[in-house]
Design brief:
single chain; mainly alpha; 3 helices; 55% helix
Length: 62
């Protein structure tokens, strides 16, 4: 993967690879990004589900 390109990960995929792709892009551990998504899900789901769905659609796969 070229440096700086944001792609959904095939290696770190559980649902769509969004968290894995973001983690690879910023150089962070995948578990940290997944925990951030989980925290966004806690106040009722929408703050986590909507951005994830948008990223799923907009970020191309590897």
């Amino acid at each position: 993967m070229a440096a700086g390109s944001l792609r959904r990960s095939k290696r770190h995929r559980i649902i769509a690879g969004v968290a894995g792709g973001i983690a690879e892009w910023v150089g962070a551990p995948v578990i940290l990004i997944r925990l951030l998504w989980l925290i966004l899900l806690l106040p009722g789901g929408l703050p986590g589900v909507v951005p994830y769905a948008i990223c799923w659609v907009l970020i191309p796969s590897e």
